[in-house]
Amino acid sequence: MLILKWILVILHILTAAAWFGLGLRLAGQARTVASGNAPALAEDAGRSVQWMNVFIVLTLVFAVSAFVVGGLVGGSNPFSFYGPQYHTSLLLILVLTGLQFFVIRPGWNGLTGGGDPESARKRVAIGTGVGHLVWLVILVLMFWNRLLGSF
């Protein structure tokens, strides 16, 4: 059971890193696509957005799975085994998933599907920027006990 927990944690980390990495260039790609000069880039970056959808859902699934399995390994209720920073992190992963599906994806669809390209570009840029900030806060919360222990 302990090995399963660590496998889930590693998969959680990999999928979260993949989401973060795919989003790094998305705002710049959106700016280029909004100018109307890069149809091939629009298709390629659109696939990146689709992969970001997959990776953020997998991040959430692996996080909840590791949370439950880790609590069972600890011998208690999974939700009482972990401290408040982990509960906050799970909530923020839900926020991140919401950003992906209600800001970034619709922004990209608006960018490639017609409408106001400047407004859509701003939605993509703001969504990825806020998403990366939330991702960073989650990362700090995951290592909170270790950070405090080093001081």
Structure, described:
- The structure is a single chain.
- By secondary structure, the protein is an all-alpha fold.
- It has helices spanning 2-24, 26-34, 39-73, 78-81, 84-112, 117-142, 144-149.
- Helix 1 (2-24) runs antiparallel to helix 6 (117-142) and helix 2 runs antiparallel to helix 6 (117-142).
- The longest helix is centred in the middle third of the chain and has 35 residues, at 39-73.
- It is elongated, with a radius of gyration of 18 Å.
- The protein starts with a helix and ends with a helix.
Overall pLDDT level = 90
Q: What is the CATH top level name?
A: Mainly Alpha
Structural class designation: mainly alpha
Order of helices and strands: HHHHHHH
Approximately how much helix is present in the residues? over 70%
Number of helices: 7
Amount of beta strand? under 5%
Number of domains: 1
CATH architecture identity: Up-down Bundle
CA-atom Rg in angstroms: 18 Å
Give the key terms.
mainly alpha; Four Helix Bundle (Hemerythrin (Met), subunit A); 7 helices; 0% strand
Can you lay out the helices and strands and say which pair or pack?
Blueprint: H1 2-24, H2 26-34, H3 39-73, H4 78-81, H5 84-112, H6 117-142, H7 144-149
Helix pairs in contact: 1-3, 1-6, 2-3, 2-6, 3-5, 5-6
How would you sum up this structure in a few lines?
With 151 residues, this protein is an all-alpha fold. It has helices spanning 2-24, 26-34, 39-73, 78-81, 84-112, 117-142, 144-149.
